[in-house]
Structures are given as C-alpha cells and as structure tokens.
TrEMBL record:
Pfam families: Steroid_dh, ubiquitin. One of its GO terms (biological process) is very long-chain fatty acid biosynthetic process. This is 20964_t:CDS:1. Residues 1-71 form the Ubiquitin-like domain. It comes from Dentiscutata erythropus. PROSITE patterns: S5A_REDUCTASE, UBIQUITIN_2. The chain crosses the membrane at residues 188-205, 226-248, 254-273. Belongs to the steroid 5-alpha reductase family.
Amino acid sequence: MQITISFRGKTQKPPVTIDLPEDTTVDDLKKAIYKKIPKYYPDRQRLTFNEKVLQEGKTLNEYEIKNGDTVAFKDLGPQISWKMVFLIEYLGPIVIHPIFYYFKSQIYGEDFEHSKMQEFTYYMIMAHFIKRELETLFVHRFSHGTMPFRNVFKNSFHYHALSGANIAYWVYGPWNASGTSGGERNEWYIWACVAVFVYAQISNFSTHITLRNLRPPGTRVRKIPYGYGFGLVSCPNYFFETVAWFSICVLTNSLAAWLFIVAGFYQMYLWAIKKHKAYRKEFKDYPKNRKAIIPFIA
C-alpha cells in the first residue's frame, strides 16, 4: 500500500509517498522514512494519524491506516539516549563534590579539618550517585529510547546545581568544620542517619531490579509490578529515594539539602501520579489499595 507523509511544523518539505506491505508496523514506516530522508532517523520522528501518535511496536492496521492515507510527520530534533542523559546528570555531583571537599582551602580561603558530619555526608552522596551511574549502565531498561538533546541542559541543572554545587558549597564549608557548632553531631545521631540511608538505598535498588525484570531486553512490555514496596505504592523507588535524601537532610540540617529534596520530591510526585494513573488505566485488575508514592497517604 501507499502512504503519504505530510511534513508539519518547521520541516519545509513537500509530501512524499512511501510503498509498504499490508502488514507494516510503525517501526517499518519510520525506517522507510529514514531510508528516503537519512536526516530523520527513527528516534527523531513523531508520526500521527487522526491526531493519534503512532506508537512503535504496533501495526498500521491497528490505527486503521489504509492505502492512500496521509500520516503527519514532525521532526523532534537531534536526540540523545536516555541512558546517556542519566550518565551526564549523575556525573555532575560525582565531579563537583570532590572538588569542594578536597580543595577546601582554595575554595573557602582557609584550611580546616572536616567534621564527622561533613565526612559522612560526602561519602553518602558519592555512594548515592555512583550507585545511580552503575544502575544506569547495568540495571535500567528504558521504555523511551531518546529525548531531545536540548533538554539535557535543563535536566542536568537539577543535579549539577542543586545537588552538586549548592549542597557541596554549604555543607563542606568552614562553618560546619570539626569543632564548630554547625558540624558537631552525636555519634549515635550520625549512625542512625547512615542506617536509614543504607536501608533506603538497598530498598531503592531492590525496586529497580523488580522493574527491570518486568521488561525483557529490547522490548516495551508493560506489566503490573509486584513485590517489596509495590504492595503499598506504585512507585516505591521514588519513595525510597526520598527517604535516602531525607536522612542526608536530617544529618546536615542544611537548607541547600532541604531545597534539593523539596524540588526532587515535587518532580517525583508528578511522575508518580502520572505513572499511577497510567497503571490504573492500562490494567483493569490493578490493585486498588495502592497509593502513588507515599504509603497510605498519596
């Protein structure tokens, strides 16, 4: 059958016609467009028919697209893989925190001894983001392959600025040094915060493994997640992430850390609500007692 591709938006091109077999998938159509116009690789394409976005993995017949129909094309612009986006985001704090921690005399203009609070906070934050990088490389499977490259800068700001430079500058400063009121913490207090942090990180990792095992490699399969954490909320990974950062906030008592957790939780809350609604819409037998992100509350 013949499908006409109509270019929308800023793409100033005349319509093109593509010949395809009857059982063509959306993936096949995108590859055919790419073959005809090499600039527009599949991840860069957004195809719609009757105002419906064509999803990869489905056939054109499922959208009732017939011979002679016209499919609208929109260029999404240069793309970058989600895996690379996450690697760039988490790399920021991994680079920034050691700079503030080890080059304190150059940054603050004086030399001082780090307090136990500063020392433990440093290693907790480094462990958190190194864990994130390793999970990105070896655990996560992404339902969406790419995102617009321009969004990398916006996404990275949250991590590089808020959890990177802002927290590092205020937490590792001389006002929190050993012997100061800002840096003094009881031994039991520090270890209690570390214990909560470790528990939350292990729990967060466990939920990531559960989510990974739901989706076979190279697929976009969606299933109802069950197991540790998922009995209470749809997104326990976000809940445990919040608990981990809450322990850092309590340990440091830093406004910079509280700012990061508030901004981060707000974004995770929006994501959780969206995922929760999507689960309930897609799966008729989705557990009704689950909340989105906070057990028994929201």
